[in-house]
Every structure is written in structure tokens, then in C-alpha cells.
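Good morning C.,

I know you're traveling, so I'll keep this short. The sequence:
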Amino acid sequence: MKKLLFILFLFPLLSLGADITSLMFYTYKVRDANFNEVVEELKQELNGKDLKLLRTLTISEAIKARGVKDFPNYTVLLACDKKEKEDLLLRSPFMSNLIPCSVAIYENKDGSVSITIVNEKPYLLAFSKEISKEDKKFISRTYSELRRVISSIAKPERRKFSKGYLKKMMRELKNASFETSYSIKGMNFDDVKTLLKSSLDGVNMNILAVEDVRKESPKYSFMLACNLTYGEKILREFPHFGTLAPCRIYLYEKPDGSVGIGYINIQTLIELYRKHLHKDAVEVFEKADRDIKSAIKEVKGE
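The C-alpha cells, ready to paste straight into the viewer:
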């Protein structure tokens, strides 16, 4: 049934031929600028506007260290580290894909520098029944602040759809399934966390960092998992995906004592962006999904 709903949701996008990336992402461009200077300026602006920087991920350096010398400069900033995130994520675990914010900064072939963030609105609509009005306002306000900061140093790219089309598609996006989730019973949070980290490493979904959002019960953490071989192929072809990578795999204590595990639905991403991806990139996405599922099944003892 979920598959059918998603196909019905996707059909208008394909039939109208709009650029889905314009709907799902905001991209800004800086011309005639040094990449490192853009990164540093943006970091300063974020920290100065209550959008505190949590972590800097120099993706291109990690990929180049593996011998891929021609990979373009690429950095992801985890920002918007606000005190409200703890309660928000306990109420709506999936929102760790939005808070902290991922800001992808990358160099283009013409020497310009692009800055991309996700459009939070489709995700808020998809989870409109699960998220409170207050939390929705908090996330919307945070992303509005983020867009203002980025606009102060970069020019936004023109979005390729009409307002009428936008309203129509935002309604359709309510049917999208953006989350893959599991429940682990009979194990405590810390044991699940340790086993999950080990299992992900075992399938080469390397853990770049673990963020413990809440250390007291109910606990909440998310892991930044990445296979750099996969990342290289995907980001070369579709650099926007740095806003969703490394993959955030989150785990949290549920009221019934079980442990929830979730991450963004990779199959939904494949269907959304298929026309922008070559066959080998689709295969990489599918491999990553299988790897994560395999690691979680190992934790469950399956």
C-alpha cells in the first residue's frame, strides 16, 4: 500500500517535468571566490547568528586521502545546534535529518562555489501528523534564519516552478514515506548503540561521529555513517546529496522500553531523483541501503 501511495505521489512530478531538485533543495552560488574563504566566512556567520556550528566534515579531504586526487573541494557543516533540539528529537526522532542543519559547500567545474541546504517544508508536511505546531514553527524559523545567513554571502539560484505548482506538489508530498524505522526489544539503549556501531563498521558504513543528544533516559543519539567509495560516486554526480550525507542513523529510547532505530528512506530518495542519477549511482544507493539494513538485522539477531 505504501508503495502504491508513493507511486501516486510521484506521478505528477514526472508528468509535469519539473526539476525536483529545485523543490527539495535551496542552492546558492558564489562566483570568483576562494573555496576555503567561503567556508570560513559561512562558519563565522553561522556562529554569530545563533546557528551554532556543531561539526565540520571535510568530505573531499577524506576522499582524496583514499587516492582520489581529482575530487573537487567539498565540505559539510553541521550547524543550527540549538538547545531546543533535545526535546524536539525525543518527540520527533526523524527530525535529526533536519536539526542539526547540514550545509553542503562544494566547488563547481567553472570554479564557482555552491552552497546547498534542504528545503525543510516537504519533510514537515510528510510528518505533519507526528510533529507539533510548535516544533514545526521552530524548524521553519531555524531554516528561515539559515537561508538569510547564506543569502548574505551567496546568490540564490532561480527555482524552476510556479507558485501554483509548488502548492500542488507540496500537497502531494504528504504521501511520501521518508523514514525507515525499526524497534529493538529486549536490549538496553547502550548495548544497542555499541552493537549498531560495530555492525555498521563491519559493512564498511564507517562511523565518522556519534552525537549524544541526550545522555540521560530517555536517551537519544545519532551516528554519522559513511562509505567513502559510495560517497565519491554519488557526490560527483549529484552534489546536493551532501545535505543528507553522511547518513544520519538515529536511535532512541521508547516509552515501552524498546529502542527505536531510524534513517532516511533511501528507496524514496532513489524514486524522487532517479532521472538525475545514472544506473551506477542508483546501484550505490541500493547497496548503501542494503548495508544499513544488514547491520540493523545483525543487531536484532536475525
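Safe travels,
E.
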